[in-house]
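Project channel, design review

CF: Before we commit to the Ceutorhynchus assimilis constructs, I'd like one complete example in the thread so the newer folks can see what an input/output pair looks like. Taking Tetraspanin.
RD: sounds good, go ahead.
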Amino acid sequence: MSSSSYTCIRTVFCFVNVLFWITGCFLVGVGVWLRISYEGYATLLPQYALLSADSLAIFVGLVTILVSFFACCGSWLQSRCLLISYFCLVVLMFMSEFLVGSLAFVYRDNIKHSFTEKLQDGIAHHYNLTQSPNNLVIIWDDIQLTLKCCGVESYMDWYLIDAWPDERWVPDSCCLPADYATGCGKKTTGFYQSGCRESIYKWFKERLLVVGLVGLTVAFVQLFGLISSMLLFCTVKYRRRSRTYKSYQ
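CF: and here is what came back for Tetraspanin:
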């Protein structure tokens, strides 16, 4: 490989990973912002708090920063050790993405069922009007007012819950705008009949295309990173033997 070709690959490789580093910092920032701004939404599924959007964004951002650090340092210092570390980390990331995507596709029905059960369990056992502040109460009110729905699968999810064990009530946020008033949820009519689950799923499905395109783009860049890192590694090894440069291991 000529010196100009090597320099070109090295420069492009370093530039792409600088962009990755910036992206990682951006993801960490977004994760922190989500954690601060939408902290209460984790109470909907406390069992899966670590899988919330803010936690995932922070984790992916930190991993991206770490991987980019190995790439940039390995390219700039021409270190075979850092380049092979970068290669191994990207392979692990690629395999993890493929595994998670495959499992999510295969068990999508089970995930949907489990998601529904956990939401219903939160309503039945953790919705408490006597605690102040209660994030779960605030979040469910916000969801039902925004999506114009009631409960998870239907308004009956609110019947006989721990907050009112002997009553067939719904929160006031379930009431239709024309009937909304304090205590309107204690009536037998005048509230939304359909649950919020399908509206939430629809919201996610509308964004799956964007998620898929981003995933394909990331996979392509990762593939380019794997190829270019191996090219750099082999070239560094050859040039080290020829003693034409100083290597950092």
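RD: helpful, thanks. The CA atoms of residues 75 and 132 lie 54 Å apart.
CF: DSSP finds seven helices and no strands in the chain.
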